[in-house]
Amino acid sequence: MADEALFLLLHNEIVSGVYKSAEQGEVENGRCITKLENMGFRVGQGLIERFTKDTARFKDELDIMKFICKDFWTTVFKKQIDNLRTNHQGIYVLQDNKFRLLTQMSAGKQYLEHASKYLAFTCGLIRGGLSNLGIKSIVTAEVSSMPACKFQVMIQKL
Amino acid sequence: MRDPNNQLHVIKNLKIAVSNIITQPPQPGAIRKLLNDVVSSSQPAEGLVANVITAGDYDLNISGTTPWFESYRETFLQSMPASDHEFLNHYLACMLVASSSEAEPVEQFSKLSQEQHRIQHNSDYSYPKWFIPNTLKYYVLLHDVSAGDEQRAELIYEEMKHKYGTQGCYLLKINSRTSNRASDEQIPDPWSQYLQKNSIQNQESYEDGPCTIISNKNSDSNLLSLDGLDNEVKVDGLPNNFRAHPLQLDQSSDPSNSIDAPDHVKSVSSLHETKKASTGIIHGACLTLTDHDRIRQFIQEFTFRGLLPHIEKTIRQLNDQLISRKGLSRSLFSATKKWFSGSKVPEKSINELKNTSGLLYPPEAPELQIRKMADLCFLVQHYDLAYSCYHTAKKDFLNDQAMLYAAGALEMAAVSAFLQPGAPRPYPAHYMDTAIQTYRDICKNMVLAERCVLLSAEILKSQSKYSEAAALLIRLTSEDSDLRSALLLEQAAHCFINMKSPMVRKYAFHMILAGHRFSKAGQKKHALRCYCQAMQVYKGKGWSLAEDHINFTIGRQSYTLRQLDNAVSAFRHILINESKQSAAQQGAFLREYLYVYKNVSQLSPDGPLPQLPLPYINSSATRVFFGHDRRPADGEKQAATHVSLDQEYDSESSQQWRELEEQVVAVVNKGIIPSNFHPTQYCLNSYSDNSRFPLAVVEEPITVEVAFRNPLKVPLLLTDLSLLWKFQPNDFSGKDNEEVKERITGEPEMIGTEVISEFLINSEESKVARLKLFPHHIGELHILGVVYNLGTIQGSMTVDGIGALPGCHTGKYSLSMSVRGRQDLEIQGPRLNNTKEEKTSIKYGPDRRLDPIITEEMPLLEVFFIHFPTGLLCGEIRKAYVEFVNVSKCPLTGLKVVSKRPEFFTFGGNTAVLTPLSPSASENCSAYKTVVTDSTSVCTALISSASSIDFGIGIGSQPEVIPVPLPDTVLLPGASVQLPMWLRGPDEEGVHEINFLFYYESIKKQPKIRHRILRHTAVICTSRSLNVRATVCRSNSLEDEEGRGGNMLVFVDMENTNTSEAGVKEFHIVQVSSSSKHWKLHKSVNLSENKDAKLASREKGKFCFKAIRCKEKEAATQSEKYTFADIIFGNEQIISSASPCADFFYRSLSSELKKPPPQLSVHTEKQSVEDAVRLIQKCSEVDLNIVILWKAYVVEDSKQLILEGQHHVILHTVGKEAFSYPQKQEPPEMELLKFFRPESTTVSLRPSVEQLSNLIKTSLHYPESFNHPFHQKSLCVVPVTLLLSNCSKADVDVIVDLRHKTTSPEALEIHGSFTWLGQTQYKLQLKSQEIHSLQLKACFVHTGVYNLGTPRIFAKLSDQVTVFETSQQNSMPALIIINNV
Amino acid sequence: MAVCIAVIAKENYPLYIRSTPTENELKFHYMVHTSLDVVDEKISAMGKALVDQRELYLGLLYPTEDYKVYGYVTNSKVKFVMVVDSSNTALRDNEIRSVSAGDWRTTPGWWMFRKLHNSYTDVMCNPFYNPGDRIQSRAFDNMVMSMMIQVC
CATH homologous superfamily for B1249-1380? Predict the structure, then answer.
């Protein structure tokens, strides 16, 4: 993983870039999130391929989720997921109390409405990683107060 | 029955097989043939419901049952020849049958028994084999009730009883019904179901040829024996085949008594007859049900009285032998050696050990006794005993290395172990394996090995050890027998799919292998089936190579099976999806495909043409063009670049054309574009608007461009390529006869179709074909697709000219083979996205590109340009000719031409003479209309005048739309008109594309097509020529002739900017003309020197002219009248008021006029001020237009030509410079950030200073030098006249102030001060245009040079409150010299 | 030394197949395709195994009379299949030992597959490759070729 600062800044630029292009009307505004999410998806695919190169084969779904929370998260965001919860019917909640991509913005409620922009990419990242590991899923994120956020992973049973 | 140690042992479901004693061991060849037949004869049932197996993402439907395999197994086992090392299919008992009708049945019996004995113990009968030396004989007296009489039979039976004992003999009565046809039918043939099974025995016996009776008979007895089965089959639960197998192996035989008993024939004759009569299908038609019972009963008797006791006895004997041997010695092995020492010599056995498996025991050898016993036990289903025996036997055999025997023992041991009720011991699979190995490797006996494998596989399967079974089966597949390998492989495949985690791919793979072997074994159907099965797995999973291969094979197979449609579709698959095959492969595929395809088409020659898969057609790229192709240019005759398929689509140009057309249509329809107007589209493509049915004109060709693509690596050759269409003629619309037409069967008088005889598409090439249709009839045409013969190029194969493809040989390519087929063109319209549900759902609009409506005739115009130049100087005038030809059959009218650049060309105004001398004659004579003038009357202007109306420049009329002055407004069919056309090089240099759109209509109005158009794009390259600048200013000079101040000076600067090395030598200004409503050039002021103004390259010249007002009357009367004044430098006058000069002038003028004049914003409250301002402005306005006409002397390839041209300068205001070419203002540098929108600047009401200064014209008149004797008189007074003339149309109050407002000090010392004497301030009012003179006196005190221009004049409109005071400083200083004398 | 090297997508369609004797390419296609069954089998078996045995390398899938088929599955369920001429013993013999020793990493087979995996990862991270397409990358191709000709 590149130097994190670089990643963070680059990420910000991506977000703003996408939204700019939306203003120029190249993408209609609603699709920005999707666009970011798709970017993340592709990146996630690539990353997971790299990261899992040396790991042992995964035992099961939970095993994979743990990998995401520990190794994957650490390599990308320099910290682990603080808390992983699941009802054992394929819903996982990954909680990060100090999510890297939000820390630059002020804590608390300010900019809260902008948070979604800065989570879309990561949602894609998770989804892409999982899909490359053969798990179809829907990843959503929610923020209650700023640097902390929750990612909810819903596994699509096929 | 009881076993050796007297346990009661139940035998279920015993089967007895009976066969002729003479039967020979079946020949291997015969067996193979037989097996083949059996397999091929049993095919999967049609309505067979295949069960779907879902494995991973595969859903395969596979029929679990393989009847062909079962029947194969059955037959195989039955056809096994009996061998020495085992006794399972050796004969156990013998029935001796004699007919009661014989003379001496008893003799007969004894004879038979001897016969039997002879057969058994005599060596020359190697076959059949007998189980034990003393075979059970069972004597049967056969009594034909219909023939013989009861008593006799009974008697003989009694006799027999005496002789052989009651259990040894039996009286069987049959044929109690007389054979009458009628009654035959209702009793079903009781035996038919069995005959099939034992057909081998029948057949064999047929082959080894003793008379049919026997065969007939033993077929009877077969059935009888099998009846025994049939009343117990229900009882047993086990799958039939397991049981069936071992029990079928024992056979008892009945003696052939017929050989020496001809009289016996009669006994069964009735049977025989019925058999014959009913063509051998119905057996035992003469048997009544009671007979059946009797027969059954007989078998029961035989088994219970005869057979079983016999077996029981034998077993017991054998058992005793063994027991005794055990008693003698511990070691069973050595004991046997001793016991039966006579039988076999040890050392013989030793050296027999050396040679391989084939250690042969003599039939009575003790080891075999065990084996025998084992077999017997086995036969009577006493499996555990059997197992133990086999086990011991196996030991022995292994000890003396009798591999064959050992293998047999092992095999049977395993089987019996498996068959043991409740399976006390696990199934010893390794026994089987070793057995198989031994059979195959050591004693090279494939048949036995196969049997072994079959058994073992069945057993394993029943234990659901599928993988093992599969392995076993696969191991046995070998080169020597394709059929066997195929069957086994198929079984293996089924094993794989039946595993608890099904191995789909293995299944598929082995299926393919099986298919391969099947096809090698000639089992086409099975082969095909296998491949199809496998296909399910490979299909659409991205394994293209495999998929292709399978498809190919399927294609082949189904072709050989004449399932042509399947074949075609299979091959289609290969070709369609982009195959990764090599070129050679594809070639092969293609040829195969074509070949098959041709056969199909031959099968149904008059069926609908099949859809061909190749080449691909990019339907959306299809283009349709209406009209003839463009004529190539001949000589200087150059046809209009209309529209053609060669021009590719260009959006903004097409937009331009559309605008042009709208303009002209608007003009035609009094300025409003009709609502139903649609721009005419001659070429339809994916960009054009295809939502409406296009209109085509009858007798005009329709060209369809189809875009083909060849996906293959091999070239494709299309022959007889033509369009396929459907036509509904309008006139007999009552019965809409739609004939889908093909070239061969079409009606040419309806629509003519062009055929491309050969069209080659190279490998992976995209190519377009242009196909023409010639509608000869009005109606609705629907172009459906294309028909062609698809073929490939071959070395030099000649095609066999079947009817489908005529004229293929003619080509330079000789094609291997080709099939006729079609491909449809369906074009999807644009995606609709207007309404809500259209947005949500994906809907596509129609595309009517290919459905033109053929309308009745329309005129068709062709335009040619003659002498049309490609290069011009800016402003150059060139005369060209246009030829209009009406090539249609109906007259055209209303010809107009519209262009965005009307100033570029003219056909000459109405005044122009419309009798053009032919283009040839008009070579290098002037484009202008000239008259020779005497050179005396030079510098004064020659006046002429013309109205702008004559030149079509009315106010408000669209200058772009120019009606073409046809001599009599219609152009008759076939007629052609040549018109002169003057061109003027545009003022900007560079390349100009100028679009002409010719508009014309038919004489008779038509509902569908109002008008037609013809396009032309002219490309002109202009190079710089002259650059003219002009200014006008008021002359201060005194008014001499026709005073009343209003004459001005016009300064014209011209520069030769032609930098071209093209050899433009020099420009001669031949004439300068003015054209104005109120002004005219009067005379040229300064041309003392050069008479005719030459301008060499980069030279500048300046001209000065005097312009005067026209006479009031001519100025006032007609406003639209323009006065032309020509000032000539040459010796001939160009009449500037005539074509073409005036035309171009007006055109340029009109393009000027199009610019809106500076409109003053209306402020109601200061109304007065405005018109004041307007007045003031007016007096500084002039509308003087200068036309400079020039000749350029050009040297082109050593011959000089003279080019002519003209430039226009339009002067609006005094003192302002005007240019002949539009000033190019450099584009404003783009600002990065826009902070605010610039608000519109309001025009200020104050007239500018210079405008005001033009209000009054002043001039001082005085002697230039004045001599005064100062010594006499110290004061010198000089009279000075000040002329004030009012230029405006209103009264002006003027204040003249003479008081010295000392100007700047240095002005003082330059010219010393003087004083005005007398009244120093004058107030006076000037009427409009009035000239007033003031007499002033200037007083000087000493000599010097003085500037008199000191008076300050203030002017104001007299009726105005507000004063616009201006100091009317006269421009030049008025100097006076005072001398002392 | 390998005669055929294939990369199979997790949906079991070929992303890449290259075999040296091109004439019987078809045979190898069949072989690889069939081997997938075994791969699935092995994976399902692998699931239960302990962590340390959960190795990406599957070792020998199955031997045919004249070829040996080896398999490897990435965590992203992408399969690498390598067909090796059974005449060449380099793989097999020290395979046996080390596999019995329970660690694959000493076997040349393992190393080869590692190489394969690495360059596959590069392909995945190549912006011009979008996952699931056939692999066109020249680099990957060369690597495979080198593995085919390389003798060991």
Answer: Immunoglobulins (2.60.40.10)
The CATH number fitting domain B616-627+682-797+813-854, selected from 2.60.40, 3.30.70, 1.20.120, 1.10.3470? 2.60.40
**In the beta sheet, which residues pair with residue B961?**
B898
Angstrom CA distances, B24 to B125, B206, B971, stand at 9, 11, 107
CA B929-B932-B934 angle, to 5 degrees, is 150
Q: What is the ipTM of this complex?
A: 0.79
Strand intervals (E) in B32-123: 51-55, 58-62, 91-99
Give the 3-state secondary structure percentages of chain C, helix then strand then coil, rounded to 5.
Answer: 45, 20, 30
**Mean pLDDT of the B576-588 span:** 69
- Strand B1276-1286 versus strand B1331-1340 pairing type: antiparallel
Q: Cα(A65)–Cα(A67) distance, rounded to whole angstroms?
A: 5
How many CB atoms are closer than 10 A to CB B1234? 8
Instruction: Report the residue of chain A nearest C116, measured CA to CA.
Output: A53
Torsion of CA B375, B380, B385, B391, to 10 degrees: 20
Residue spans of the domains in chain C: they are 2-151
Query: What end-to-end distance do the CA atoms of chain B give, in Å?
Result: 187
Q: Is the Cβ pair C75, A133 closer than 8 Å?
A: yes
β-strand B136-144 against B169-174: which pairing, if any?
A: parallel
Cβ count near B1316 (within 10 Å): 18
Residues 484-513 of B with CB under 8 A from C: 496, 501, 503-506, 508-509, 512
DSSP one-letter code for B442: I
**In this predicted model, what pLDDT tens digit does every residue of C70-111 receive, in sequence order?**
888 888 888 888 888 777 665 554 454 445 445 556 666 777
* Dihedral sign from CA coordinates of B363, B365, B366, B371: negative
CA-CA distances (angstroms) from residue A112 to A17, A35, A147?
19, 20, 10
Residue A156 contacts residue A129 (beta carbons within 8 Å): no
Residues of chain C in contact with residue A52, where contact means CB-CB under 8 angstroms, are: 74-76
Q: How far, CA to CA in Å, does B1066 sit from each of A44, B43, B973?
A: 76, 102, 48
Q: What is the DSSP letter of A57?
A: P
Domain ranges for chain B, please list them. Answer: 15-39+70-313, 539-607, 616-627+682-797+813-854, 1026-1152+1173-1219, 1249-1380
Q: Does B1270 touch chain C (CB under 8 A)?
A: no
Cα gap B1280→B1320, rounded to integer Å: 13
- Smallest Cβ–Cβ distance between C74 and the set A42, A52, A60 belongs to A52
Closest residue, chain C, to A46 (C-alpha): C125
Domain pair B616-627+682-797+813-854 / B1249-1380, same fold = yes
For C34, which of B501, B509, B541 is closest by C-beta distance? Answer: B509
Q: Which residues lie closer than 8 Å to B35 by C-beta, 6 or more apart?
A: B72, B75, B76, B79, B483
CB contact (8 A) between residue B542 and residue C13: yes
| Yes or no, beta carbons of A59 and C54 under 8 Å apart | yes
Please say if the pLDDT value at position B127 is more than 70. no
Nearest Cα neighbor of B511 from B487, B475, B543, B545 is B487
**pTM of the complete model:** 0.59
Kindly state the DSSP code that residue B611 receives in the 8-state scheme: B
B1241, B1242, B1246, B1249 alpha-carbon torsion, rounded to 10°: 30
* Residue of chain B whose alpha carbon sits nearest to that of C45: B501
Q: Tell how far CA B55 is from the center of its chain.
A: 35
Q: What is the CATH T-level fold of the domain C2-151, as seen in this structure? A: Beta-Lactamase (3.30.450)
State whether the Cα torsion B213-B217-B222-B227 is positive or negative: positive
Q: What is the pLDDT of residues B324-338, one digit of tens each?
A: 665 444 444 443 444
Rounded CA-CA distance C124/C147 in Å is: 20
